[in-house]
Design goal:
This protein is mainly beta. The chain has helices at about 1-10, 50-75; strands at about 20-25, 35-40, 85-90, 95-110, 140, 145-155, 160-170, 180-190, 190-200, 225-235, 240-245, 255-260, 265-275, 280-295, 300-320, 320-330, 350, 355-360, 360-375, 380-390, 400-415, 420-430, 435-450. The strands form 2 sheets. The chain has a 16-stranded antiparallel beta barrel. The two termini are about 45 Å apart.
């Protein structure tokens, strides 16, 4: 009997060193990363103390389970979020853990019967109107959306679970420069998020999956420095969030006005109701208020314009095989919150009926998409999105953007849990204030491998 116990202990501690690794035995489809335990001391005399050895082994297994649970609980769901890491390094008792993950992506695109200028993404705003011989066809290959992310979790008595997250891609320079770019860098604890993250106005789970990095033009996926507070209540059916975020103003000036540094943050907020066994359906109401400062050169004084926006968004999982995504947004002077208009200079424009006045531009958009889950590895999706800029006292310029449309259909297939392939068709249009328009077509294919 003693020999059998010693043999069991020897098997449990075979290969033990200053760092140990464990692979969780999980049911099919469960998250099962490899967990390396660091600072797990090797004590040779444990071979002669079977009970102590068994207790140590059980503690290690509990640490592994707790570390995996931390990464499951803190995994952010939704559009373009980091995948769960395949490797986790944890200290004894799981007081601290960290992981390195990411993926490599290659996208190949071919534009025909009209193309999008000004970048690798399919942005209706960037469709040239009118088109020329140089904008009819285009081939591109792009790996700039490949990503690397770092995550660290500390379990503390005072602040609870503290999460530090950073990720980067390679879109920091010009097209095909592959300059590293910091996407997000934040710390979260007690409902607070401090750092750089996706704007609070964005509903991460309201957008469908697309190969195209930009996605539906009425959606709003932008990064910004912020301080945000979120709190769930009503048994996690309800969530409220509010933030102060660095403003990004993009307006059109004339000889009577000039740009100046901003002095007040944007204030987005939301209230969300979720339902379902896994809270996998929800409706969210969002709003944002902003004050945009400029210099009035005629009066030699500072002045400001009020910008505001409201949005309804969400996702509804009707059944195992079908899910709906949607958002609708309306406001004035909110180009950072409608991604087709970001950087367009349309937060405000001079008043064409009074050259000494400047005005915010009314704008709105909506998108709806459906995803059909044909199997755990295969899904199809398609959708429609449109953005409008309304005239106010007439259009400042006839070639100013009036409307953009974005239509897509795609198929995604997981060859393995870490490798995914996809194909996609995109169609977009841009119409100007004078009703002159042009269109573009694109076919995308993608290969992505997670690590």
């Amino acid at each position: 009997m003693k020999t059998l116990r010693l043999l069991l202990v020897a098997l449990l501690f075979a290969g033990t060193a200053s760092a140990q690794h464990h692979t969780r035995k999980a049911r099919s489809g469960d998250y099962a990363p490899t967990v390396y335990l660091i600072s797990a001391h090797q004590i040779d005399t444990l071979y002669n103390t079977p009970n102590a050895a068994l207790q140590a082994a059980l503690r290690n297994q509990q640490t592994v389970a707790n570390a995996i649970e931390d990464y499951i609980v803190t995994q952010r769901q939704g559009n373009r979020q980091a995948v769960k890491p395949q490797f986790i390094f944890a200290t004894r008792n799981n007081k601290f853990s960290f992981s390195i993950g990411g993926f490599v992506t290659l996208r190949t695109a071919y534009d025909f019967e009209g193309s999008v200028s000004g970048g690798l993404d399919f942005v209706p705003y960037n469709i040239p109107v009118p088109g020329t011989f140089a904008t009819k066809q285009r081939l591109s290959m792009d790996a700039t959306t490949s990503r690397i992310n770092l995550k660290a979790i500390t379990n503390t008595r005072a602040l609870g679970r503290v999460v530090i997250f950073m990720d980067m891609d390679f879109r920091g320079g010009g097209e095909s420069s592959y300059t590293a770019r910091l996407r997000t860098a934040y710390v979260t604890f007690k409902g607070l998020t401090i750092g750089r993250d996706v704007t609070t106005f964005c509903d991460l789970q309201a957008a469908p999956a697309t190969i195209d990095f930009q996605g539906p033009n009425a959606y709003n996926f932008n990064f910004t420095p912020m301080i945000r507070y979120e709190v769930p209540f009503a048994h996690h059916h309800m969530t409220f969030g509010v933030a102060a975020e660095l403003p990004g103003v993009s307006g059109t000036y004339d000889e009577h006005f000039a740009s100046m540094p901003q002095r007040m943050p944007d204030f987005p907020m939301y209230l969300q109701y979720a339902w379902g066994a896994k809270r996998d359906s929800h409706i969210r109401l969002s709003g944002v208020v902003r004050n945009m400062y400029m210099r009035n050169l005629r009066t030699d004084k500072d002045t400001s314009l009020l910008g505001w926006g409201a949005q309804m968004s969400g996702t509804i999982k009707f059944c195992r095989w079908f899910q709906l995504f949607m958002n609708g947004v309306y406001g004035e002077g909110i180009t950072p919150y409608i991604q087709d208009l970001t950087g367009s200079g349309l937060d405000f424009t001079p008043n064409p009926t009074n050259a000494e006045q400047i005005q915010t531009m009314p704008m709105w958009g909506y998108q709806a998409a459906g995803q059909f889950n044909l199997s755990p590895r295969l899904f199809l999706s398609g959708g429609y999105s449109s953005v409008y800029v309304e005239q106010k006292h007439g259009a400042y310029s006839t070639d100013e953007y009036k409307q953009g449309k974005y239509i897509f259909g795609n198929i995604f297939y997981s060859l393995t849990p870490r490798c995914q392939i996809a194909a996609e068709y995109l169609y977009g249009t841009r119409q100007n204030m004078d009703k002159v328009e042009n269109h573009a077509n694109r076919v995308n294919v993608m290969l992505q491998y997670n690590f």
